[in-house]
Amino acid sequence: MSYASAHGRASCDRDARQRTRCVVGWVEIKRRQGIRNKAVFAGSRAEKCANFELNLFSLVWLYSTRLLRGVKLFYTHLPAHWGMSKGCNSVTYAPLDTLKPVAKDVWIVDGPMIRFGMAPLKMQFPTRMTVIRSKRRALFIHSPTPLTDSLKAEIANIGEVRHIVGPNRIHYWWIPEWRTAFPKAEVWLAPRIREQAKGRIDFDAPELTKETGYPWDEEIKTLPVAGSFMTEVEFFHPASRTLVLTDFIENFEPKKLSWWWRWLARAGGVLAPNGGMPRDMRLTYSRQKPQLKAAVETMIGWNPERIILAHGKWIERDGAAELKRSFGWLLD
Ligand SMILES: [Fe+2]
Question: Which residues have a beta carbon within 5 Å of ligand 1, which is an ion?
Answer without folding.
Answer: 247, 310
